[in-house]
UniProtKB/TrEMBL annotation:
It comes from Devosia pacifica. The lineage of its organism: Bacteria, Pseudomonadati, Pseudomonadota, Alphaproteobacteria, Hyphomicrobiales. It is a multi-pass membrane protein. Signal peptide: none annotated. Residues 1-22 are annotated as: Disordered. This is C4-dicarboxylate ABC transporter.
Length: 726
């Protein structure tokens, strides 16, 4: 790893992607090493190794494994927070904490340390065979101090958030210790908790452990994902207690705090499907992405795209469509992928003439599309398989055509805009040499191996592990060979990048648990059925709106988990197939990242391009508009989900592609020439007519497309030439 970073790999020419050993996968922050010490780095590596070992060699009991996953994520997350989101203007060490801050830290230290000591004492008694104090005393006295200390530490983080550049804030250490104390109690009593959690038999000590766990999860979610998901989770928690006073379908009998919080900390809530997927598939593929980063194979993907399409009109935008989609498929977060690849593609798009808001919007739209791109689909496919029981490989096959239509529609938007504005590409002299990169096509082997092993019958975990190992092996064919240091770095990055999704999945588990406990999901489905009056199209429209609203401000994983619990059951009751219903809500949960007014991916792109966030989100919505039609297309034509005869699938795909082009042309106002408002409306009607996928609607759309082509070429074109001659 001591290669000269300025040297092009294998003489491929000028390299566009120039990753460095100090760049994490989806941020430009520095490594944990040297920021919060070797010990925390070792913890991060151990966290990743533990998951890989358990998944492949020695499985653990599910509750225990998921608790280790959540607790490790909390501990590393709180300690990492000081390094990853520090105030760049803060001094190297702040000696002047206010008395109030020190007071909160003191209260937190007393309460959390006392609670941790009590739990540790119980464990020591079990391991060493002494128990001079009964469990009733030990666990009866740990809860209230631990809770008070945790609240004080959280308050210190809220109101005194300036972070030292080199050290972990004392409150963050205490929150990490609180997570360990909570974990110690739950694991100590895991057998009994399975029987009494969520019932009238729940103990006060159970309640305090679960309540502290919920507080810690929401605090870490606030830090790594923002307030939106925390507020939504808080509303659902409040709903569990105020239900008896609410009207209509929202009413329920209400629950005691003991029953509610202990129920939430079971496999019906926090330890349910989202965390089950996070602790297996998500972390595995995040580590896979980290190996691609450390081996520079990820850079090759971007360079290959630049070599193939960089010199075309609007070349950098077309590269963003391909490269951002490919990387977004792997790393699991739309906004994170915008930051990772947008720092490269957005400046180049601006260089060839794209406005700042368009450059950011294109990157955001392409990165969001990575979440629906098989075979990894940003981890969404794994949650869908877990929730529906549909085999993962079936979901991947069904996702192929909708993903293709999404990226084709974005490509059409980009190409038509470039044509309309007369843009050029990047000169070939400034691009990597395609013929050289083509000889390095073996660097695609990790992705090829992943796809092959999945369809050869390997489990998802085994396939992901083999692909991850292949990334390290392939690196030995390049100047950037992965040695022990690079492997350890990839493991560290994997842990660091998984923290956000651990917190998000746990917070989503809270919401899913409330829905299951209160039954509001079933009642909401009944309401949806009543409003739709058995009309599937109306139900789908409401489902689209609800999925987008639920997803605003939330990462895709959490957005889909909530939408699947609230919306999908009602669609299934209307007779819509399970796969179609879940794909429908998943698609719009992804689209929420580019839907105003809260569009996380677009906001991330705006930060890189210097454009106005709201204008950028509107532009992203416009560029992705054609993609908003795709779910209705596969609702009407199940052939788009690879269901049916091959000839019929081919026909539906061909007409869908034409519909995507017509819609893109109508949005951009360019169809073999500039379009006026009336012609754009005509073209839009033709495009929408092809949604249903029947022969007569397809023929109508095709007829309009041909007529418009003739009109533009034979009438509008000659007139423009004549005016130019005059």
């Amino acid at each position: 790893m001591s290669q000269d970073k300025s040297a092009p790999a294998n003489d491929a020419g000028p390299m566009i992607a120039q990753g460095t050993d100090d760049e994490p996968l989806a941020t430009n922050q520095r490594s944990l090493v040297g920021k919060i010490g070797l010990a925390v780095t070792v913890m991060a590596i151990a966290y990743t190794v533990f998951h890989i070992y358990v998944m492949n060699i020695s499985p653990l009991e599910p509750w225990t494994y998921r608790m280790v996953h959540v607790t490790g994520g909390l501990f590393i997350g709180f300690l990492s927070y000081s390094a990853l989101t520090f105030n760049p203007d803060a001094p190297v060490f702040d000696h002047h904490r206010s008395p109030i801050e020190w007071g909160l830290i003191g209260v937190a230290a007393i309460g959390i340390v006392y609670g941790a000591v009590m739990v540790g004492y119980a464990w020591a008694g079990r391991w060493f065979g002494f128990a001079p104090m009964p469990d009733a005393f030990v666990f009866g006295t740990y809860g209230i101090p631990l809770l008070i200390g945790t609240v004080a530490a959280v308050a210190a983080g809220w109101f005194f958030s300036d972070r030292d550049r080199e050290r972990v804030h004392p409150a963050d250490w205490l929150l990490g210790i609180a997570a360990l104390a909570m974990f110690g109690y739950i694991i100590f009593n895991v057998g009994a908790l399975r029987l009494r959690a969520g019932t009238g038999l729940a103990q006060a000590a159970d309640f305090y452990a679960a309540l502290v766990g919920v507080i810690l999860i929401l605090e870490l979610t606030r830090r790594v994902a923002g307030l939106a998901l925390v507020i939504i989770a808080g509303i659902f928690i409040a709903y569990s207690f105020v239900g008896p006073w609410l009207p209509g379908f929202l009413t329920h009998r209400g629950y005691t705090p003991e029953r509610f919080f202990t129920y939430i900390f079971t496999d019906q809530g926090i330890l349910g499907d989202p965390i089950a997927v996070s602790s297996t598939y998500i972390i595995l593929f995040i580590v896979f992405a980290a190996f691609l980063q450390a081996s520079r194979v990820g850079d090759y993907f971007v360079n290959f795209a630049f070599a193939a399409a960089g010199n075309m009109r609007g070349g950098p935008a077309k590269v963003a469509v391909f490269a951002s989609g490919l990387m977004g498929m792997i790393n699991g977060t739309s906004a994170g992928n915008v930051v990772a690849t947008g720092s490269l593609t957005i400046p180049l798009m601006k260089k060839v003439g794209y406005p700042a808001k368009s450059a950011a919007a294109i990157e955001a739209t392409a990165s969001s599309g990575g979440q629906i791109l098989p075979p990894i689909m940003g981890a969404g496919a794994f949650i869908m398989a877990e929730v529906t029981g549909i085999p993962y490989t079936d979901i991947v096959v069904a996702a192929f055509i909708p993903a293709m239509l999404y990226f084709v529609s974005v490509y059409f938007m980009v190409d038509l805009q470039a044509t309309k504005l007369g843009m050029k590409g990047i000169p070939k002299a400034e691009l990597p040499k395609f013929r050289v990169l083509a000889r390095q096509v073996y660097l695609f082997l990790p992705i090829i191996i992943l796809i092959y092993t999945l369809f050869a019958g390997y489990s998802v975990i085994r396939a992901g592990t083999v692909a991850m190992a292949s990334a390290a092996v392939v690196s030995w064919l390049t100047p950037y060979r992965m040695g022990p240091k690079a492997v350890l770095k990839a493991l560290e990055l994997g842990a660091k990048m998984s923290i956000q999704l651990v917190a998000v999945c746990a917070a989503a588990g809270i919401i899913v648990g409330v829905i299951a406990l209160t039954g509001v999901g079933a009642r909401f489905s009944s309401l949806l059925l009543g409003i739709a009056e058995q009309n599937q199209l109306i139900a789908l429209f409401f489902a689209m709106c609800i999925s987008i609203i639920l997803g605003m401000g939330m990462p895709t994983t959490a957005a889909y988990a909530v939408a699947a619990a609230v919306v999908a059951p009602g669609l299934i009751q209307l007779g819509i197939p399970v796969l179609v219903a879940h794909f429908f809500v998943f698609y719009y949960a992804v689209m929420s990242a580019i839907t105003p007014p809260v569009a996380l991916a677009a906001y991330a792109g705006a930060g890189l391009s210097g454009s106005d966030p709201m204008k950028t989100s509107v532009e992203a919505f416009k560029i992705g508009l054609a993609a908003f039609i795709v779910p209705f297309m596969f609702f009407y034509s199940h052939e788009l989900l690879m269901q049916g005869e091959w000839m019929e699938i081919a026909r539906v795909v061909a007409t869908a592609l034409l519909g995507m082009y017509l819609l893109s042309a109508a949005v951009q106002g360019y169809y073999f020439g500039h379009l006026g408002p009336i012609l754009r409306i005509v073209l839009l009607i033709a495009a929408l007519s092809m949604i249903e996928g029947t022969w007569y609607t397809d023929l109508f759309g095709l007829g309009v497309a041909v007529a418009m082509f003739v009109f533009q070429k034979r009438i509008v074109g000659p007139r423009a030439v004549a005016r130019g001659a005059d």
